[in-house]
Amino acid sequence: MGFISEYFAGLKRLVDEVNEQEVVRLVERLEQVWRDGAHVLLMGNGGSAATASHIVNDFQKCIHLDSGKPLKALCLSDCTPLLMAWANDTEYANVFAPQVECWAGPGDLVIGISGSGNSANVIRGVETANARGAHTFGLAGYRGGKLVHVAKECIVVRSENMQQIEDVHMILLHTAFSALRHRIRTA
């Protein structure tokens, strides 16, 4: 088996190991937020920031086009000047928590994405969301890191390969989006 075949085989194994009920719970949370007109806030670093930014496109635009009602989704990694201001004036570990404090409250959903599960800024953001009464959901890799203990719910991709972890996180979010879209269309 060559490298590419092995990579695909590893990815298939990780997808097969996902607990479908955990994804169903994420879809249920997203649907409730959409029905209530609440907010979905997403955050992550590096590849996880790109994943958060990408899925906001699907959550916000596609759900709005399909239903006439937007899913109020926001990626906290997207405003570079704001991130840099918080990082410069406080510390990088504090770039998400003040944004969560600004936007999140009871009924909102805050999704923290961290391949390692140990990104300090994501952990602080999730802790702030918990303190504000929002529901928190984590996507982590390896063994879950701190995120599995801080988020109210967390899906852990049990792998040591960061790229495959990030691949599966995107698959999970695309699956949740697609399932939400299906629920809305068939309701």
What does this molecule look like?
The protein has helices at residues 3-17, 20-36, 47-67, 80-89, 97-103, 120-131, 147-150, 162-186; strands at residues 39-43, 72-75, 109-114, 135-141, 153-157. Helices cover 59% and strands 14% of the residues. The relative contact order is 0.18. The mean pLDDT is 97. By secondary structure, it is an alpha/beta fold. It has a single domain (3-186), classed as Rossmann fold (3-Layer(aba) Sandwich), CATH 3.40.50. The radius of gyration is 16 Å and the shape is globular. The longest helix has 25 residues, at 162-186. The chain has a five-stranded parallel beta sheet with strand order 2-1-3-4-5, sandwiched between helices.
List the helices and strands and how they pair.
Blueprint: H1 3-17, H2 20-36, E1 39-43, H3 47-67, E2 72-75, H4 80-89, H5 97-103, E3 109-114, H6 120-131, E4 135-141, H7 147-150, E5 153-157, H8 162-186
Parallel strand pairs: 1-2, 1-3, 3-4, 4-5
Short description:
With 187 residues, the chain is an alpha/beta fold.
Computed Rg: 16 Å
Using the 3D structure, state the CATH architecture: 3-Layer(aba) Sandwich
Query: What gross morphology would you assign?
Result: globular
Please tell me the overall pLDDT: 97
Strand order of the largest sheet: 2-1-3-4-5
Order of helix and strand elements from N to C terminus: HHEHEHHEHEHEH
Q: What is the percent of helical residues? A: 55-70%
Contiguous low-pLDDT stretches (5 residues minimum) are none
The H-level CATH homologous superfamily, spelled out, is Glucose-6-phosphate isomerase like protein, domain 1
The description of the largest β-sheet is: 5 strands, parallel
